[in-house]
Amino acid sequence: MENTNAKVNKEKANKYKNIINSLSGINGVRYIGLVYTNQKQETSRYVVNFGVSVEECKKRDFKKLQNTNPKTLGSEYPKIGAEVFNVALDELLASSKQNLSEKKEDRTTQSQSQTDAFITIFNGIRLKNGGKNDGKLQVFGLRQSKKVLVEGEPYKPVNSSTKTIAKNVIRKNLTKYVSMYMDEIDSIRVNGDVLEFEAK
Length: 200
Hints:
The protein contains six helices and eight strands; from the N terminus they run αββααααβββαβββ. The protein is α+β, with helices and mostly antiparallel strands. The chain has one domain. Strands 1, 2, 3, 4, 5, 6, 7 and 8 form an eight-stranded mixed β-sheet that branches. Strand 7 and strand 8 form a beta hairpin. Helix 2 packs antiparallel against helix 4, helix 3 packs across helix 4 and helix 4 packs across helix 6. The mean pLDDT is 82.
């Protein structure tokens, strides 16, 4: 028997698909504009390119990693050093390559769980299916702009290893993904080349 929540989620996903399908006549690149408040209570207005394929982003980032020079980074960050950057880069490359596999079982455990946990509605739009944020619509895409409207709580300092710091430095040059959850969509309106979501 199908899980009740899963059935409800499928129905909600179909509702969202109908909303997106009603926009199929819009040509060119499409964006989403929405106001989002994160866990630190920072409220920002985002413009997101939601027509970006996740797989294309993965391929793009893999190429960027391949073109990353650990010696150059080591010179820019001498306290970390090229050797640590080399180890960090190798690990990021291995993980990135693994997650490009067409076979889900070949991907990392995290990537597999992310695939299982969502119902895809459209490129960059999917519904959380189970676990935390179950039943919520997730907007995922390439961040075009961000304007902070309300400053949030300060982030506490974290004592990370030099390899973790090196990975974070490398990731700064990768695609600037954003991921935001909404309970419901009230309406969508077009403002130029931006689709503005009224959500709650």
